[in-house]
Every structure is written in structure tokens, then in C-alpha cells.
Amino acid sequence: MTTWTSDELNRIATTDELEMAPLRGDGTPRTAVPIWVVRDGDDLYVRSYRGTDGAWWRTAHGSHEGHIRSGGVDRDVTLIEEGDPGVNDRLDDAYRSKYSRYRGTYVEPMVADPARATTLRLLPR
């Protein structure tokens, strides 16, 4: 199993956004979209601001594969659904902390149940 290097984790976790290009069923990538990313230990996570209505998330949910760019890191990834309430609680805290300047606008939807239901762990390939 491939893991993130410390350098990759730090570079991605300290950037505001990650470019996500999930793969369609035929293996072609969707156009990359900017999304928020947070770190929990040695793992990186993303969520859909629009919950399951997010087009990029629907594609990612179907294929569980994609390509990301962030902080100078350019990697293919496997997307693993995260349903553990404890992990999601920690991620809520991470979103609130990292993106605190957006409180009252974008953060609250990112920690609400519809977004929590779309939490994906990024595993490098």
C-alpha cells in the first residue's frame, strides 16, 4: 500500500485548495475543480460542499479514483469513503480551524450532515 510522504502531507495540508479530477466510468478524468482539503494524522480528506449533489463527488463516488494537484504535489489517488463518526468529528474541527476566516459562509455547510456524508480519504496510488 502506498502512503503519503511527510513532505507531501505537509505541502498539501498547508494549501487552501486541492484540485480534484475524479475519473469517470470510462477512465477519463473530469475537469479538475478546486476543493478544500484537511489532514488528520497521516491521512488527507475532502468533502463536497454541495453534499451528494456535487458533480465532482458523484463521479468520485462512482469510480473511487481520481487525480489531485496541491502544493506542488501531483498524484493519482484512490478515494475511500469515510463513515466513522469519530473521524468525521475530528475533520469538522480541522475544517473549522483551517478555514476559520470563512466562518459564517462556507465552513458551516462543510461540517453539516450533507457534506459529512461525502467524506473521502485520499490514498495515493
From TrEMBL:
Organism: Streptomyces melanosporofaciens
Protein name (record): DUF2255 family protein
Superkingdom in the source lineage: Bacteria
A Pfam family per the record: DUF2255
